[in-house]
Specification:
The chain is an alpha+beta fold. The protein has one domain. Strands 1-2-3-4-8-7-6-5 form an eight-stranded antiparallel beta sheet, with helices on both faces. Helix 1 packs across helix 6.
Length: 222
């Protein structure tokens, strides 16, 4: 089960990377609009904080995943974390990706465009969901589900995503405008897969409730 889920996780992101290539024009235009706002030293310092995100969070243990060098170059990714987390108590499996770079490139390419660009269809969402830490710090993320059209047996791929410049995640309707002027930006994806008619299993929600406070602490390190 673990090997299959791990393979599927890599496939999900490979598909999204393929769809991403069709959106490069928007990234280039945004880079022009944000010219002069890029601060390489600030971006590099922010990217270094990704190493503070723990590999184990409660009962969740992780294994690392690689981001293709072509994807890094095309998306202007300066720093990244991509891991598969498995919960030893309930068997849940999710994939976490956090990217860091200049705010312009990081604010584009929503997974709705990525997955639809490679043949998936949107089956629900996007909608905004909110998570609250124990200290009542709130984070908002987009949530959407995708499946292959024409197949009742297609697995359901659920994606949660949002942006942050300080470890508190938000899901603005127009992130390019919301974060314009920021020298750097973090972008988060959490993905899970489930069989048809079992997509109400709260794999990603369970992970995010535990992980978001730890991620926030890591990204707020000096």
């Amino acid at each position: 089960m673990s090997e299959t889920a791990n393979s599927l996780s890599r496939r999900d992101f490979a598909l999204c990377a393929g769809g991403f290539l069709a959106l490069l024009g928007a990234s280039g235009a945004d880079a022009v609009l944000n010219r002069g706002l890029h601060d390489p030293a600030a971006v590099k310092a922010a990217a270094a904080r990704l190493t503070s995100i723990p590999e184990q969070i409660g009962a969740w243990t992780s294994s690392p995943e690689e981001i293709d060098e072509r994807e890094r170059r095309m998306a202007d990714i300066v720093g990244s974390v991509r891991r598969t987390y498995r919960n030893s108590e309930n068997g849940y499996i999710v994939s976490l990706t956090i990217l860091c770079g200049a705010s312009g490139p990081m604010s584009v390419h929503p997974p709705t465009a990525c997955f639809e660009g490679v043949g998936y269809e949107l089956s629900s969402g996007p909608s905004v969901v909110t998570f609250a830490d124990a200290d009542d710090t709130q984070s908002s993320l987009n949530r959407a589900a995708f499946r292959l059209p024409g197949s009742q047996m297609s697995d359901v791929v659920r994606v949660f995503w949002g942006w942050s410049d300080d470890g508190k995640w938000t899901a603005p309707a127009n992130p390019r405008l919301a974060f314009r002027g920021q020298p750097y930006l973090f972008k988060l994806y959490v993905v899970d897969r489930s069989l048809p008619r079992t997509d109400d299993v709260r794999q990603s929600e369970t992970f995010l409730e535990e992980a978001l406070p730890e991620i926030r602490k890591g990204l707020q390190q000096p």
